[in-house]
Specification:
This protein is mostly helical. The chain has helices at residues 2-39, 60-67, 75-89, 97-112. The chain contains 4 helices and no strands. The radius of gyration is 27 Å and the shape is elongated.
Amino acid sequence: MSTGLIIAGLGIAAVGFAGRYAFRYAKVAQESLKKQMNALPNSGAFSKYYKGGFEPKMSRREAGLILGISPSASSAKVKEAHKRIMLANHPDRGGSPYLAAKINEAKDYLDKHKH
């Protein structure tokens, strides 16, 4: 009986030491990651998404940014980009009605103002 208690005690001690080591290592790794993240530039240079809000009146530039295409893209590219983005943002699938309206406005603007 005493042998079982000794083995159980050693097992609990081993788990405690392993947990202590894991906790310390995780803390050091987290601090290192935080330092590396703070060293990165804070600008949106690494993001492919536009960080600004919407303009009061739709422009070719804004329509292109919303659809993720060049403002001078072909009608086929506009249609394909609109379809792709609306699938992800449609209100029937949990998307925002406001964003869906802006996406439709961007498509209509580019279709209407083709050069």
